[in-house]
Design brief:
It is built from three helices and 17 strands. It is mainly beta. The chain has a seven-stranded mixed beta sheet with strand order 1-16-15-13-10-9-8. Helix 2 packs parallel to helix 3. The longest helix is centred in the C-terminal third of the chain and has 13 residues. The radius of gyration is 18 Å and the shape is globular. 34% of the residues are buried.
């Protein structure tokens, strides 16, 4: 029996017709009905938004929602048929579940997990997770980045220029060495075994990341197996700098 970290609700199969205005996707369901689904992903979704691709949708029964369906998964064929998670709300939920189960031994024996903790020089940023405890020598600031872009078996982040991501790197670097700073790349597909910064799309980010690593920033390129049933952790990808 598979020990899923996260189980999807019942999903609906369909084919992606088009994605537009970032937050909308027209889908033809297996029944033939065409619906507009909410696309909870603000990025360009490079390589994972090809019309004609198989997709999976969740459905909400909340009458206040304008769009009942949410785009959850899309199937790619870069290496072999692979489901990719495109709902950017989920990675932080899944990482919290993984932290509660202590699935990342690299982080040590923390006992307290706090989310959305204010930090940064201007105190206007929030780190995704703050880990501490009696046995923790230095508190850990952990940031999560959803990663779906791939070239072959190499996962890449970011897939577009990200000033927000650059800011996060600068702020995490500023915490060193008094605290531990960790960047966790949530590789939302199982067909990638390596990870590298997306220098082609954002060379500044790549430079900042390498500089941060040299100063002590820790990198966890975490691979996840994603299917219409659920999500489970399958280990670290090899870091290529």
């Amino acid at each position: 029996m598979i020990d899923w970290l996260y189980r999807y609700p019942p999903l609906y199969s369909g084919i992606l017709l088009k994605r537009y205005k970032r937050f909308f996707a027209d889908i033809q369901l297996d029944s033939g009905e065409i619906v507009t689904a909410h696309c909870p992903n603000t990025g360009p979704m490079t390589g994972v938004s090809t019309p004609g691709s198989a997709v999976q949708l969740s459905q909400s029964d909340n009458p206040q929602r304008k769009l009942a369906y949410t785009l959850e998964l899309i199937q790619v064929h870069d290496n072999e048929p692979t489901w990719v998670g495109v709902n950017t709300v989920l990675p932080n939920r899944v990482v919290k579940l993984a932290l509660e189960k202590h699935l990342f031994p690299e982080l040590g024996s923390y006992s307290q997990i706090k989310g959305e903790v204010v930090y940064g020089q201007d105190k206007k940023s929030r780190v995704d997770f703050f880990l501490t405890g009696d046995d923790v020598e230095r508190p850990i600031y952990l940031e999560v980045k959803n990663t779906t872009w791939a070239q072959g078996t190499l996962a890449l982040f970011p897939d577009t220029e990200t000033t927000r991501g650059q800011k996060h790197l600068r702020e995490l670097t500023a915490l060193l060495p008094q605290t531990r700073a960790v960047m966790l790349y949530f590789i939302n597909r199982s067909d990638c075994t390596e990870f590298a910064p997306g220098d082609i799309t954002d060379p500044v980010y790549g430079k900042l990341l390498r500089n941060a690593i040299a100063l002590g920033l820790e990198i966890l390129p975490c691979r996840f197996h994603v299917t219409p049933e659920g999500i489970r952790y399958i280990g670290l990808a090899k870091l290529k700098l």
